[in-house]
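Weekly structure sync, notes
Attendees: PL, DS, HV (note-taker this week)

Item 1: Peroxiredoxin
DS walked through the input record. Source organism listed as Cycloclasticus pugetii. Sequence as pasted into the shared doc:
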Amino acid sequence: MTLKHTPICDVGLQAPDFKLQCVDGKYWTRDECAGEKGLLVMFICNHCPYVKAIQEKLVDDVAILKESGIGVVAIMSNDPNDYPADSFENMQKIAIEKNFNFPYLIDRTQKVAKAFGAVCTPDFLGYNANMELQYRGRLDGRGMQDNTVEVKRDLVEAMLLVAKTGAGPVEQIPSMGCSIKWM
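Item 1 (cont.): predicted structure, written out as tokens:
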């Protein structure tokens, strides 16, 4: 496991388009994933301990964001040949087991991860209604700590601000996690 931190948010950068397969077999595009107020793109996987620590929290936070007009999508870009836990079949199992309330897509060629500049899992990129990047930061201050610890909800607060104003917070703390497993 190689620990990586996300780069500083390049505010205004356009969200790349994509068309990827979901765990339910359907193909989704960027615009189909977006809500009327914006889009949160999450690069996650099944095996990373940083992602495992927040899976239930993601479901709760996504519900709040969707109510505010933010669409949410998760993309898995790791090489499943080297990391079998990240196979499409295991993605399907995790999505059901954890009750994912967002499309969980596979990026088999890793072109989408490269287009977004994804570096780790989890990596969160928040866009406004014009598909302009406004947030590139962490979920919250918990990291891999116990889920009962109360912390500032960086991602939810940032994306609610994006939904309300179209702009993200000035201060953003990078996300950290396992490096993307490139082919």
